[in-house]
Amino acid sequence: MRYKRIGVIGAFLIATVCLLSGLMYYFNQDICPVGTFLCPNTTFCLPQRNWCDQDPHCPGGYDEEDCYDYHGVLDWFHNDRDSEAVRESVCACQGYTEIPQNLSSQTTLITMYDSSIKRVPMGAFAKYSEIRILYLDSTEIQEIEKGAFVNLTKLFWLMLDNNQISELVSGHFTGLTSLETLKANKNRITVADFSDLEGSNALSFINLNENRLTSKNLKLPHLPALLEIYLDENDFVSIPDTLFVGCPALKSLYVLTSMQKNKIKTIEEDTFQNLEQLEELNLAFNEITTVPLNVFQPLKNLTRLQLGYNRLHNLPMPVLNPLTELLSLDLEGINLDVLKKNAFDVFTKLDFVYFKKFHYCATYAPKAKRCRPTSDGVSSLSHLLDKTLLRAAVWVVSYVTCVGNVLVLWGRFTAKDENRVLTIIIRNLAVSDMLMGIYLFIIAVADMIFRDNYKQVASSWMSSWSCTFVGVLAMISLEVSVLILSFMSVERYMLIVAPLKGHRTMTPQTASASMIIIWIIGITLALVPVIHWRSSTRFYGVNGMCFPLHIDDPYLIGWEYSAFIFLGLNLTGLITIGYVYAGMFVSIWKTRHACSLSVGDSEFALRFFLIVLTDAACWAPIIILKIRAMMKYPIPADLHAWVVVFILPVNSAVNPLLYTFTTPKFRERLSDGWFGKVRNCVIRKPSAEDSQTSTSMGNKNIMLSLSNGNQCKNKIPPILGFNNEKTHSEKHSHIQ
Hints:
Keywords: Cell membrane, Disulfide bond, G-protein coupled receptor, Glycoprotein, Leucine-rich repeat, Membrane, Receptor, Repeat, Transducer, Transmembrane, Transmembrane helix. The protein is α/β, with parallel strands linked by helices. The protein is built from 17 helices and 22 strands. Strand 19, helix 3 and strand 20 (328-330) form a beta-alpha-beta unit. The longest helix is centred in the C-terminal third of the chain and has 37 residues, at 559-595. It is elongated, with a radius of gyration of 37 Å. The relative contact order is 0.05.
């Protein structure tokens, strides 16, 4: 009793100590672990991947609120104007060919639409001194004369969008002392000089998107109130340090470009020297290759930076470190493989971040609540294989591939009376195909190991030698299979189409030597990129499946080698196999048609068709996708995984059926073995007499056909892998 009481007291004390230790550990930690964020008014910590995924998780659906990136300056759009004054006299003018002069002198807003006004003459609006807002967009304006807007001292909103204006020069904006917003995008402007507005304390917004401006032809004088300027899709190639020197209040600068327009290559280190108030900077979609180390040093108030889709091969963190106020950062399309873990934790206010690869989120910015992308189409932040169907399919395909090729090896190694040349070739083909099954099996196991925690290991897995080894296995399997099938096809073609041109039947020694050479070539092809990119192991580690198809990013590291493999070797193999099988089929069809030999024609045709079909089904889709990707056609992000799981292993899974399971000898041995015993337990076993009668009748038909065929001028030689694998009964009938 005493010991029981001591045990109870001891257990209680130990439990109390453990509980207190746990509570101390819990309360000394942050509210939520790194990579998770607290749902408001709860103690629930939600992982980064679940924020803004269109599926509410927090009570009240808070995690799906504020999912749009509004960071930036839009104040000009929300300015509260004297709306009553604007509404006093409004004119919506339609169908005019010139500026009307018969409107009320108290008109405060003029909108011209469905009009064709080629020219705005001097003093065109002089009598309308009360105008506040003037819409002249989409009116086919080609020329604006100097002094066209004279006397419009109260005008604060001028729209010239979507016209054919070629220049805006000194004298065009004379008298616009109250102008706050100027929009002249989608014109043909090659020169823009705003000298008339120098010193203006009103002008705060300029939009010159989609014109033909260059840094030399844009003159921005001292504009102390200018907050935002848009220069998207122009012809800039550089940003000199003098361009914005007169705009100290600038908060938003957009030099965003389409792929066909602005091609900014260089930024001078002092370009943003006087822009301490800049809050938003967009330099995306240019051709910037390097960023000066101190270029962002003056931008202490920058909250949003967009650098995505430039030609930056790397972006050193010291370039970004001065931007401590960042709320939104866009680095899409930029490789960041050499950064340190948690590199973006220095940006404590970062709310939105956009990367090229999804695993950068967990590796570099686990504290950013909203990080994109959340998947690369293959993997997600949680799983190596994101979709349930893919997880199941990779197990099934790997099982079918491995079991099928193991049966082939069993059949070829246990048979004693097989054609030795054919056996050597099929054994090697089965081994290479089985490597594909092993590759898929390893991927399936890795997915199971990393389940629900993939974001923590994604970067290390893809850059590891384990991933490289797995990718090498798949590449060896693919290329050796391509070479063996091409080799078999050419050998058959020489035997069938040109049997009398001195081509000798292959010996086992020649077959063995050929297979050794093929394996050496296949292994070399798989290892060359490993050696060449040995410092990064990134050729195979472009995604979680460790196979470099380069269809989601066609110009990623090693794209030239990938194109050589798939568009060079594999395409050549596919064309070779298709050509030689077509030639063989035509030769056999002609010979048998002349001999009136119909036995087995349908089987030959079907097997020829299936061989070419499976080769095409495996390689043609990949080749087509590669070509489309390199031509910059959009390829769905999740297509890579489906190709690797369902298309790439087609040959490896089907080859046993085509080259072994459908041969008479294998079917006979399978029927005589354990499979036949199982089958006979289910259905009635035929008597020996029935079997002998059936075999004899079949042999008589074959011998009769062959004897008729001897009358033909051309004889059909034995076909490697087809009619030279005779059953035991057929051989016995020939001996007799």
